[in-house]
Amino acid sequence: MEKRRTDCPALPPGWKKEEVIRKSGLSAGKSDVYYYSPSGKKFRSKPQLVRFLGSSVDLSCFDFRTGKMAPGKLQKSKQRTRHDPGSGKPDLNTALPIRQTASIFKQPVTKVTGHPGNKVKSDQQRATEQPRQLFWEKRLKGLRSSDVTQETLRTMDLPSGLHCIGPDPSEDCLLWAISSALHLSSGPISGQSSSAEKNPAVWINCSQPPCRSFTVTEQHIRVQEQVVNQVRRSLEEALTADTLARTAESTRERRAR
């Protein structure tokens, strides 16, 4: 491995940034970033830096990989503060947001207030049946989650029996819909009825993910339990190997001193 250690102006004086470039293996060419305090303490992630420095340094817009303050993150942080009701600062933007639909006319969302004379509030049909947006999963297309080292996380593989329906029949959209349904719905998740395949834009059930109806059998549960057990064993082996590697690295650092 090739190591490069430089000063980090974004952090207090004496802090060092170390970039370790991997030379072999499947990840050859990629690099790991670490930071060292003036006393020599090593930090492997941004959360560790935040816990150590506390309120003495604002790291909300600090990019852990580059070691610089990112203006884009600073702007997002200011926007979150402006909309945060607990920040103590009122939001002066009172304009209603625009409904995101395919209509060529801009339609603001309906603001529901607690005033007794509010017509929307007294509408029983609207009170019992709140409108839902169809195919909202398309808004997440192209987004990928990443870990603290900015490495993109691979999405899970769905069973072959799940077939997506709708304008964007991709596994990613179906995975987002199923995850949301499992998190928010209190009823069983069974997919769409057969009529939804004729015209999903008309017959689709908003409370179910946009996929064909499916049934989870006892055999499916047993197979999934085996997969979970195998993943747990792999995770245990990886954690053991990581602990041994960190111990060996700490031993080498003490000997080098």
TrEMBL record:
<dbReference type="GO" id="GO:0006346">
    <property type="term" value="P:DNA methylation-dependent constitutive heterochromatin formation"/>
</dbReference>
<dbReference type="GO" id="GO:0008327">
    <property type="term" value="F:methyl-CpG binding"/>
</dbReference>
<dbReference type="InterPro" id="IPR001739">
    <property type="entry name" value="Methyl_CpG_DNA-bd"/>
</dbReference>
<dbReference type="GO" id="GO:0000122">
    <property type="term" value="P:negative regulation of transcription by RNA polymerase II"/>
</dbReference>
<dbReference type="Pfam" id="PF16564">
    <property type="entry name" value="MBDa"/>
</dbReference>
<dbReference type="InterPro" id="IPR016177">
    <property type="entry name" value="DNA-bd_dom_sf"/>
</dbReference>
<keyword id="KW-0238">DNA-binding</keyword>
<dbReference type="GO" id="GO:0000785">
    <property type="term" value="C:chromatin"/>
</dbReference>
<feature type="region of interest" description="Disordered">
    <location>
        <begin position="110"/>
        <end position="130"/>
    </location>
</feature>
<dbReference type="InterPro" id="IPR032343">
    <property type="entry name" value="MBD2/MBD3_p55-bd"/>
</dbReference>
<keyword id="KW-0597">Phosphoprotein</keyword>
<dbReference type="Pfam" id="PF01429">
    <property type="entry name" value="MBD"/>
</dbReference>
<dbReference type="GO" id="GO:0000118">
    <property type="term" value="C:histone deacetylase complex"/>
</dbReference>
<keyword id="KW-0539">Nucleus</keyword>
<dbReference type="Pfam" id="PF14048">
    <property type="entry name" value="MBD_C"/>
</dbReference>
<keyword id="KW-0804">Transcription</keyword>
<feature type="domain" description="MBD">
    <location>
        <begin position="1"/>
        <end position="69"/>
    </location>
</feature>
<dbReference type="InterPro" id="IPR025884">
    <property type="entry name" value="MeCpG-bd_2/3_C_dom"/>
</dbReference>
<keyword id="KW-0158">Chromosome</keyword>
<feature type="region of interest" description="Disordered">
    <location>
        <begin position="70"/>
        <end position="94"/>
    </location>
</feature>
<protein>
    <recommendedName>
        <fullName>MBD domain-containing protein</fullName>
    </recommendedName>
</protein>
<keyword id="KW-0805">Transcription regulation</keyword>
